[in-house]
Design a protein that fits this description.
Layout (H helix, E strand, L loop, with lengths): L13 E6 L8 E6 L2 E8 L2 E6 L13 E3 L4 E3 L6 E3 L5 E3 L8 E7 L2 E8 L1
Antiparallel strand pairs: 1-10, 2-3, 3-4, 4-9, 5-6, 6-7, 7-8, 9-10
Length: 117
């Protein structure tokens, strides 16, 4: 389900996508950043964001399985595994990467960078 949260007005680099209580530790949520699907991940209170679509077949990563200990998410369609911090593929194949986005928390709002990197 798409996030409909519309928090404070975005600055030039970040956009508000959710509130902290919407993404508890160990959970993921699909959000939208300037028309792009992004998986927002909470690893023990630290937030990370990466493209939501697995490059293999477009699997929705936010619906995958999150391993909090390793910081990895498994695509629900074909079990490709991704590091949520770096966007690098863990298995298979290891030469792929999905874009990651900077995340910051302001008060109770989670903001994600408009540009990957």
């Amino acid at each position: 389900m798409s996030s409909r949260y519309r928090g404070p007005p975005p600055d030039s680099d970040f956009v508000a996508v959710a509130r902290v209580d919407e993404v508890p530790p160990g959970r993921m949520k699909r959000v939208e950043v300037d028309g792009r699907d992004v998986a927002l991940v909470n690893l023990d209170g630290a937030f990370f964001a990466m493209d939501n679509n697995c490059p293999h077949n477009g699997g929705p990563l936010a619906q995958g399985q999150l391993d909090e200990c390793s910081g990895q998410v498994v695509c629900p369609w074909h079990a490709w595994t991704w590091d949520v911090k770096t966007g690098r593929a863990i298995a298979p194949p290891i030469d792929y990467r999905v874009a990651t986005y900077s995340v910051r928390v302001e008060g109770r709002d989670i903001l994600v960078s408009r540009s990957p990197g």
